[in-house]
Design a protein that fits this description.
This protein has seven helices and 15 strands. It is an alpha+beta fold. A nine-stranded mixed sheet has the order 9-10-11-12-8-5-4-14-15. Strands 1-2-13 form a three-stranded antiparallel sheet.
């Protein structure tokens, strides 16, 4: 009585006794990218048999020993291996899919570049690889007008310009006018709605410089354009310049950039009238007592696309004797609204 059996000191701990042996990791799980479930993984390596649990008796038998959370270590390791294999498969597949997409993009880029090069070769073959700036002239050659000088400007040979229409009837309020239609850039499209030349006989000033500084000139009124189109009267000056033609006896030209707002009745509000409707690039000079004015009409979107090119056209405006300008092509000149080629 009173004798109590003592546990041997070298007895293993409860945790060690209830822990299941850890199975060896088979590297074949990692290499097999097709492994998608833990059940398939378990068929390649069978875990060793479960070690019998050792139950220790203590002085309070009503408190049983609960198994440790480490019982599921083996099963958890197999699950981790299966998930790792699945991630391996995704990691291997992703670069391949990206590479395929990159190949498609490369093919598209190569096709686009080939189309661009073919277009460039076509343009260069038609123009011998050189860009030139031939003059577009009015009142020249066989279509000259008595007492009117030839007026011209330069445009790139890669651009297209509608045929010129000359009017010498005086119905426009000017003794002579010339109009070219749309000027088209093959890259940006339409860059100018039209180009016009106005001729006023017997101008009040012998030189354009006699009007004063270009920034102080009331352009529409001084050039007589306010009676031709009200948009000139509404135009505000954006810039002004003085140009001297050294090749023609230091002839003076005044150049302007004018911005015309829409008429009040077309404005949705007072703020809306501040947005331009037309942008005029103008150049004027006086030759032999007659006033010659070039006006390029462009919309704001045309100006944004090709503002510098339009300035170049305006700055190339020249008035001179007809013989120094290349004869115009009869097929590109119209009198009034009737093509010259159609006249008998």
């Amino acid at each position: 009585a009173g004798y109590r059996r003592r546990t041997r000191p070298h007895t293993m701990s409860l945790t060690a006794a209830t822990r299941r042996p850890v199975p060896r990791i088979d590297t074949r799980y990692i290499r097999d990218a097709r492994l998608t479930s833990s059940s398939r993984a378990s068929t390649s390596t069978r875990p060793p048999p479960r070690t019998p649990s050792i139950v220790a008796k203590v002085h309070r038998p009503d408190h049983s020993i609960q198994p440790s959370a480490d019982d599921d270590v083996g099963r958890s390791r197999r699950d981790v291996l299966a998930i790792a294999a699945l991630f391996t498969q995704c990691a291997v597949g992703t670069p391949l899919a990206s590479a395929a997409a990159d190949d498609d993009d490369d093919l598209d880029d190569e096709a686009a570049q080939a189309a661009i090069e073919a277009s460039m070769k076509d343009v260069l073959s038609k123009n011998s690889g050189e860009v030139s700036y031939p003059r577009r002239a009015a009142f020249d050659g066989a279509f000259g007008v008595d007492g009117v000088k030839a007026a011209s400007f330069e445009v790139s040979n890669l651009w297209t310009v509608a045929p010129v229409v000359q009017d010498v009837t005086g119905e426009s309020g000017f003794p002579a006018t010339a109009r070219w239609g749309e000027i088209v850039d093959p890259v940006n499209g339409v860059v100018a709605v039209e180009a016009r030349v106005f001729v006023t006989k017997g101008f009040v000033k012998p030189s354009i410089a006699d009007l004063g500084k270009p920034e102080n000139v009331p352009v529409a009124k001084a050039l007589g354009l306010d009676k031709y189109d009200d948009s000139y009267r509404r135009a505000d000056m954006l810039g002004s310049y003085k140009r001297v033609d050294k090749t023609d006896g230091d002839r003076v030209y005044y150049d302007w950039e004018m911005v015309a707002s829409p008429p009040p009745k077309e404005c949705p509000s007072a703020v809306g009238c501040l947005y331009p409707q037309h942008i005029y690039l103008m150049s004027a000079t006086v030759v032999d007592g007659d006033l010659y004015v070039l006006s390029l009409d462009a919309y704001p979107e045309n100006w944004r696309l090709a503002g510098n090119s339009l300035k170049r056209i305006r700055n190339s405006f020249r008035v001179s004797a007809p013989e120094i300008i290349e004869p115009v092509n009869p097929n590109e000149v119209m009198l009034g609204e009737v093509p010259v080629g159609a006249m008998s």
